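Chain X:
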Amino acid sequence: VKMKKKPLVINSDDFLKYPSVILKKICDKFDIPFDESMLHWKYGLQDSKLFFSGQLFPYSDIWYGGIKESTGFKPYDKKKSNLPEKFRAILDVCMPIYHKLLSSKFIVTI
């Protein structure tokens, strides 16, 4: 599939390692002013209750539970993947697509 515009591809490891750099890039891409307050939020996400309550997004507690327990980005901690063997075939199908996307990712420069 050919796209008219190149998407902003961000590796999640890069985002967790360099959140301010990545957020600044996202803001630049969408012409939004960056603010340091984007790197921190209130514990429990009181300001985002509708989204994170499951009313708009039913799996929010599963996917974003850790965010509700924090107030900002934590230091990067690489996790070891323990993919069950029954999902290996799906991973094998997805990896070429992942690598194609990864080849056009935003390069972090510090």
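Chain Y:
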Amino acid sequence: KQTDFDGAFTYSPLVSVDFGSSSFEIISVRPNPAANTTTICFSTVDKDVVSVKVFNTNGQLIFVQETKTEEGLNEFNLDVSEYNKGMYFIELENLETKTVHSKLVKTSEVR
């Protein structure tokens, strides 16, 4: 509703908003920091094939694996037990070559 200075008012048209997951994105990486395993929770628009990549801070690719996904929320369990302590970068890439990124910290012990 908008009211003018003279007291006259009008209503705005209704607009539909969909808050559903309608994009390719990383929802969470947990636990983070991680000592042994971490779960990457992400969403996809359709059934897809996603490439999961992990890079070290030098930009070297240290892990890559393709996984089939379903429309909506998906999870990927990543074993980091053999990784050195430090920061890593996660990259997910779908068949449309869209990429999303997140950071992961590897710890030496469980907190």
